[in-house]
Amino acid sequence: MAGDRMRVTKEPEIRRAELIEAARQLFDKNGIKNTQVSQIVEKVGVAKGLFYYYFKSKDEIVNEVVDLVMSELKEASLKILADTQLTFYQKTSEFVALYMHMIDQFSGDEEENLDSMLEIISHNPIAQDANELLQAQLERLIRQGVREGHLTIEYPEETVRVLIFGLLAQSRKRLLSMEQVITIVEQTMHLPTGSLKDEMVWQKEHRALNGPQ
User: What is the four-CA torsion angle of 72, 78, 82, 86, rounded to 10 degrees?
Assistant: First the structure.
């Protein structure tokens, strides 16, 4: 009928990917808990029945988004550690930025959403694998800092666990700002006050001037 919105047919994998991306954007904006299936299908412009053709439930698409984000986190962290052009401080600040990105992806603007996100991640195999890899990489980074004379940490593995689980435990009570996380990392790793903040400010300005690398 003239004037009616024409139904657009797309390949199944394309439509499925659109639903996952829409869910990801809504989780980022509203948090997992406050995002409904109806909002996801509305954003894509499809019927709710099509959603359930691809996914059994909201929980299933949540796990798909977690898989995607954690896989990206894993890839990005490997790239950071392997980059020989980055200094110890640059790598550390990049890891802080990755942590904040992960929190932002799922928590939205409300603190109670973070509990839902952490509960889901704790039962997701890909997320667990990425978390273990991240811990191992941070331990390697701390050992690099010790070798280069930036740190005097005697127990790198234990320090990483205290840092990661301490930040997550605190975040479950209250979402931390970037500045707060930076300060906690500096103090835990006994880094000069403001060293990571100065590095992140420089990187932000550098990217603004030169564009993404």
Answer: 60
CA dihedral 58, 73, 201, 28 (to 10 degrees): -10
Tracing tokens 């359930």 back to the chain, one arrives at 52
Query: At residue 36, does pLDDT exceed 90?
Result: yes
Domains and CATH numbers, the chain: 57-210 (1.10.357.10)
Q: What pLDDT is recorded for position 108?
A: 57
Identify the band that residue 61 occupies on the pLDDT scale cut at 50, 70 and 90.
Answer: very high
CA dist., res. 129 & res. 117, Å (int): 16
Main-chain phi, psi angles of 155, to 5 degrees = -125, 80
pLDDT in tens, 102-153: 777 666 555 555 666 667 666 777 777 777 888 888 899 999 999 999 999 9
> Mapping DSSP to helix (H, G, I), strand (E, B) and coil, where does residue 212 land?
coil
Q: Which two tokens stand for residue 11?
A: 């390949």
3-state helix, strand, coil in the chain (%, to 5): 75, 0, 25
DSSP secondary structure of 92-152: HHHHHHHHHHHHHHHHTT-THHHHHHHHHHHT-HHHHHHHHHHHHHHHHHHHHHHHTTS--
Model pTM? 0.73
Rounded to whole angstroms, how far apart are CA atoms 99 and 174?
15
